[in-house]
Amino acid sequence: MELLGRFWARVTATAPELPVEWMLGTAAVAALLVLSPALWRPARNVVTIAHEGAHGLVALAAGRRLAGIRLHSDTSGLTVSAGRPTGLGMVLTCAAGYTGPALFGLGAAALLAAGHAVGLLWALLLLLALLLVQIRNWYGLWSVLVTGGIVFAATWWLPPTGQVVFAAVATWFLLLAAPRAVVELQRARRRRGARDSDADQLARLTPFPALVWVGVFLAVDVGALVLGVSWLLDGTTG
Q1: Dihedral-angle region of residue 84 (phi above 0 means left; psi in -120 to 50 means alpha; beta otherwise)
Q2: Helix axes 160-192, 37-61, angle to 10 degrees
Q3: Is 168 in contact with 112 (CB distance < 8 Å)?
Q4: Backbone phi, then psi, for 145, in 5-degree steps?
Q5: To bridge 148 with a disulfide, which of 28, 34, 128, 133 should be the other Cys (CB 3.0-4.6 Å)?
Q6: Do the Cβ atoms of 171 and 108 come closer than 8 Å?
């Protein structure tokens, strides 16, 4: 019990606030990951993890049975759930993918602004562990383990200020990467005429065309970014 108490105290400890210049620096690092073609390709695996994880979480919350998640080396993914092929639960599950990374980022911004950077990192580890048991291919297993290992290393070995910096970069990355993923979705739809995307599945499930759903995804992601920026900058010093 004493060990558990010490662990809980560490998880719930309040981390130091970053100066505004440092917070803007973490935003610049995240923007580089998102905007650099060389860095975006490997970093996009993190977006896929959040995307498919959001599908899985919402599927379970909607009462569907999660049958497994696959992550692929081309940064695509697939979440399979069993249940009614139509209805609100299926619509929410499909809509969760392209909004999930931004909403995860917004939740992370709330925790970070409240000074709970360590709790945020442990929450990320818990979510990755829950995702890991649903992975059904080797690349997906490797991808989640590597991501979890990096987060664990930051949680366990970085000093408090380093943990806040790492958590801030991760938060900014989720907030900034989500809109780019939606833009890429629409480019792929226009270039290849893809009809199996989340937006196209939603068009078949609802009266609204796929382009409307792309707009919904983008509106949610940009809204989360704007609100997240406000929270992150309010949680700085100086």
Answers
A1: beta
A2: 90
A3: yes
A4: -65, -45
A5: 128
A6: yes
The first and second tokens of residue 224, run together, are 């989360």
CA 73/CA 82 separation, integer angstroms:
25
pTM over 0.85: yes
Distance CA 190, CA 140 (A): 28
Backbone angles phi, psi at 135, to 5 degrees: -70, 140
For residue 133 the two structure tokens come to 């048991």
Q: Count the residues in the chain.
A: 238
As a whole number of angstroms, the distance between CA 197 and CA 217 comes to 12
Per-10-residue mean pLDDT for the chain, 238 residues long? 69 84 97 97 97 97 96 96 94 98 98 94 96 97 97 94 97 98 94 82 96 98 98 85
List the structure tokens of 74: 């081309």
Report the alpha-carbon distance of residue 226 to residue 234 in Å, rounded.
12
**CA terminus-to-terminus distance, the chain:** 40
Q: Are 186 and 214 in contact (CB under 8 A)?
A: yes
Name the nearest CA neighbour of 164 among 154, 173, 156: 154
Judged by DSSP in three states, 67 sits in strand
DSSP class of residue 19 equals B
Q: Is there a contact between 100 and 54 (Cβ–Cβ < 8 Å)?
A: yes
